[in-house]
Amino acid sequence: MTPLILGLAGPVLSDEERAFFADVDPAGFILFRRNIADAAQLRALTDALRAVSGRADVPILIDQEGGRVARMQPPVWPAFPRAEVFDRLYDVAPASAIEAAKANAQAIATMLHEAGINVNCLPLLDVRQPDAHDIIGDRALGAEPLRVAALGRAVLEGMQAAGVVGVVKHIPGHGRAMADSHVELPVVTAPAEELESDLAPFIALNGAPMGMTAHVVYTAWDAQECASLSARVIGDVIRGRIGFDGLLMSDDLGMHALSGDFGERAAGVLAAGCDIALHCSGDMAEMRAVAGAVGAIADDARARLDGAMATVAGRGPDIAFADLVAKRDALLAYA
Questions:
Q1: Which residues of the chain have pLDDT under 50?
Q2: Quick one: pLDDT at residue 180?
């Protein structure tokens, strides 16, 4: 197995992709809107990915947050609310907000489980900051760290109850970045004592099964490299100060915050301490470059991967989707 999570080009596996994935044996796969047409097609695709990997529990990831980040969309699948609505409910009824966030996450996971998807890149634990770039914005669970942690825990628990692993992101915090890391490299110059509030939700949920790094430079910790490429940030801050020992993946290698060729990017995030390099585009030339730059997955990374997937072994939906949505909506009405 190689320490890669890879995308694919379209709604069906091509012969070239099938052969490549069988040879490279990536740790997992990630799906985007280009891979999704309807329910039957999506289930056939996820079945094909399990078959080519030979692992019934191979991680198949998606970003199904709700709001503006949703790969499975109407009219085939329902829309889900953005994270901000749970933050607003928390202002008037904290316990109801936590229950609503959990029910919503469990409903999302119920939908994903039916499609054969077992990992969702949620929750964001980024603490929203005033005047920051809106790439996080209404995707955040709030501007107060303990609130973000409480709602984030509810999201993780709701998804796990329906058989889907959560991924906390973007460690160690993207909330105060003034640029979109999809487009350019954000540089955060806040002193270390201010960054403690960014770390707080990740510390509270440091037992999460999976996490995703931020392509953000934090000058207080490493003025040269973004977190995904910084051994100092990953070792001292993520593994050390935060205490996160789950499976750590990079954010997408294709984002413009990173430079260098794709092989250099993949090797760089792994050398810095990420367990897995994430490559999303499905471009075969890029994937061949990434695969050519990495060796076999490290033993500790494989153990973390197996441990993360074990958290949902034997689990699956046990509450009807409609009941979960009805519960969520009744609670959100309080806001």
A1: none
A2: 80
Q: Which residues, other chains included, contact 14 with Cβ-Cβ below 8 Å and sequence gap of 6+?
A: none
What residues are labeled active site? 182, 251
Distance between CA atoms of residues 86 and 89, nearest Å? 5
Reported as half-sphere exposure (CB side, CA atoms, 13 A), residue 256 has a value of: 5
DSSP string, 74-107: TTTS-----THHHHHHHHH-HHHHHHHHHHHHHH
The two three-digit tokens of residue 56, written as one number: 């019934």
Please, how many CA atoms are within 13 Å of residue 172, restricted to the half-sphere of its CB?
A: 33
Contacts of residues 131-135 at CB distance under 8 Å and 24 or more positions apart, as own/partner, are 131/178, 132/175, 132/176, 132/177, 132/178, 133/177, 133/178, 133/179, 133/180, 133/186, 135/174, 135/177, 135/180, 135/181, 135/182
The Cα 76–Cα 78 span in angstroms is: 7
Closest to 30 in 3D by CA, of 21, 39, 40: 21
Q: Where are the alpha helices (DSSP H) in the chain?
A: 15-24, 39-53, 84-92, 94-115, 145-161, 192-204, 231-232, 262-272, 284-292, 299-310, 321-332
Amino acid 134: pLDDT:
83
- Give the rounded percent of residues in the chain with a pLDDT score beyond 90: 95
The closest alpha carbon to 69, from 83, 53, 49, belongs to 83
What is the rounded CA–CA span in Å between residue 148 and residue 53?
36
Exposed e or buried b for every residue in 8-29, given b needs 16+ CB within 10 A? bbeeebeeebbebbeebbbbbb
Please compute, for residue 301, the number of CA atoms within 13 A of its CA located in the half-sphere on the CB side.
Answer: 23
